[in-house]
Amino acid sequence: MDVAEKLKKDEKEFDIIIACDTVIHFNDQIIGKPTDSEDAFRILKQLNNREHSVYTGVTLVDSSLRSTQFHEKTHVVFGNISDEVLRAYVETGEPIGRAGAYGIQLKGSALVQEVRGCYNNVVGIPIFELVKQLRLFLKK
Carries keyword Hydrolase (predicted)? Predict the structure, then answer.
């Protein structure tokens, strides 16, 4: 809402703002983006050969500052990956800046054994649900 309020205050025109953020839920912990390469390796070791949930929260705000929120949940299972492969993946730099320290749409796909739910949610934007929610939001 802060962005929408600032744009409104500065008299900048906009039709709709779409804001998304993705986190990982594993063992009753929220895992965001790694702080550095060692943190990325630690996160990947935690997720290795296990299932975790990916949540993306989405907020829609229109120019009248009317808003709605929703979230999407997807289950992801990592395969049993060797430390050597995990380190090599971390060394690509790809894990930095990504929730859970992997990019499923890039090299990180090699770590993933199974996805149950919306693949695009794991990428960072649950497109199908977003389009559905946009239609509902714009009808109101």
Answer: yes
66 - beta bridge partners?
none
Strand locations in the chain (E): 16-26, 29-31, 51-62, 67-78, 112-116
Which residue in 122, 107, 120 sits closest to 52, CA to CA?
122
7-33 pLDDT tens trace: 767 777 778 999 999 999 999 999 999
- Encode burial over 18-53: b for 16+ CB neighbours within 10 A, e otherwise: eeeebbbebeeeebebbeeeebbbebbebbbeeebe
Tokens 């800046």 appear where?
97
Q: What is the pTM of this model?
A: 0.90
Evaluate whether 72 touches 20 at the Cβ level (below 8 Å).
no
Q: What CATH number does the domain containing 57 carry?
A: 3.90.950.10
**How many residues does the structure list for the chain?**
140
Q: Which domain holds residue 12?
A: 2-139
At residue 109, the 3 state secondary structure works out as helix
Tell me the catalytic residues.
21
